[in-house]
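User: Show me sequence and structure for the first protein, then do the same for the second.

Assistant: Starting with the first protein.
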Amino acid sequence: MIPDHNTAQADATDASTAMADEDDREETFTIGALADEFAITTRAIRFYEARGLISPRREGTSRIYSRRDRVRLILILRGKNLGFTLEDIAEYLALYDVDPTQRAQTELLLAKLEDAISDLNGKRADIDRSLRDLKELRAKCIDFLKASRAEAMGGRASRS
């Protein structure tokens, strides 16, 4: 049986209303729940809020965090873990809101990643050079101490 136009329109309206109701019942989080989930302090979350990186709604004195806030917190923590500054992260998050295609955001992220990789490769080269120098110096110290012991032992043998 083919539904008539009015029935199809009513079904579409019901689906639209159900989606709106679902948005109204969006999952929310307390500051404590987010702090526990990500093993960070509530103070850190408030700091990110003060910097404008997340913006929970307020109900009295309580902060109510949405799924969007939670995702933004994940991105903040991931960015910090990768060594990005809060300014870098803020720039990335701002593009996330402005560009629905996420192209500009992805281009910015790629540039930041390339810079970070280059920086870490430079640091790795410096560490490798330092390790070589330290190992060379350690070997010289060991050789010196062995030679000193041998001389000391040789001196004792000639006295006997």
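Switching to the second protein now.
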Amino acid sequence: MDDYSEFSAPELVKMLGGRFKDYRLRANMTQKEVAEMAGLSVLTVHRFENGAVANISLSTFLLLLKAVGSINDLRELMPEQPESLYLYKENNQKVKRVRHKKL
């Protein structure tokens, strides 16, 4: 699947939980081992993997990725963008925020 735009946030969290379980199994780790390494409860790991949660904090997700040795996969999730000429004003100053003019 290449287009996730039609999925709701809870559906995406459920999908990530299922994928995370595969990562954990490939790392040859139990839910208890992951929970201990991440500083979370076994119940949190279990509920995430089984789609029993509709929401998970980003920090919790990052802790789980670290625990199974997959934190560097973030490069694929949000790769750095190349420099863009659209990020510079006419005077060659870099744009720091976007403001829309009031109508």
